[in-house]
Design brief:
about 190 residues; alpha+beta; Glucose Permease (Domain IIA); eight-stranded antiparallel beta sheet; three-stranded antiparallel beta sheet; 2 helices; 15 strands; globular; M23ase_b-sheet_dom; Cell_wall_metabolism_enzyme
Length: about 190
């Protein structure tokens, strides 16, 4: 009886370790990742598979990729989205009902977002911009719903490794129209 209890306890410890270690280990895979966020938690979101850490939050940042912005103190730049570190190939899903926007239309993402960046115009009147992807499963004009696979994370256009750049703008607006994307990303 004691041996059975010991084996069961050991099995519980091993299984608990197996579920906790891979998520943390995944976050340490890409040596190019640099974290400019004090948030060390691993987050979930309806927009991506797995649990991942925020690299750069929305707003003023010390990350060296952004020019000084007068909205920010000192030499800080302004980041228009939220970057979430994740391994290349991580599944990205839509979490809005909307239509994929023609990349040549007003508010098109620039080269910094990677050559395959795209926007989904949500029914709520905002554009959700998904950057640093390689494999895209939607095309301009496609209707998307929550849960639909739309892309896979990559490092296209990113100097800091594979991650999701998640940005929300006024429909048809450029970076200056970006709003805090946290309510849309729904990090848990």
């Amino acid at each position: 009886m004691r041996l059975r209890a010991l084996v069961l306890a050991l099995l519980v410890v091993l299984l608990a370790g197996l579920t906790a270690v891979p998520s943390a280990a995944r976050e340490d895979r890409d040596p190019r990742w640099r974290f400019y966020s004090s948030d060390h938690r691993l987050h979930t979101s309806p927009w991506f598979a797995g649990r991942h850490r925020v690299m750069i939050g929305y707003g003023c940042t010390v990350a060296p990729y952004y020019a000084h912005d007068r909205r920010c103190p000192g030499r800080r730049g302004f980041h228009h989205g939220i970057d979430v570190a994740m391994p290349c190939g991580t599944r990205l899903n839509s979490n809005v009902r909307g239509r994929v926007v023609d990349p040549a239309s007003s508010g098109a993402p620039g080269a910094a977002y990677g050559p395959y960046a795209f926007r989904i115009r949500a029914r709520s009147g905002v554009d959700v911009l998904i950057g640093h992807v390689r494999r895209v499963y939607v095309a301009p004009g496609d209707l998307v719903r929550p849960g639909r696979l739309v892309a896979r994370a990559n490092d296209q256009g990113a100097p800091d490794g594979c991650h999701l750049h998640f940005e929300v703008r006024r429909a048809g607006g450029g970076p200056a129209s970006a709003i805090d994307p946290a309510p849309y990303l729904r990090l848990g």
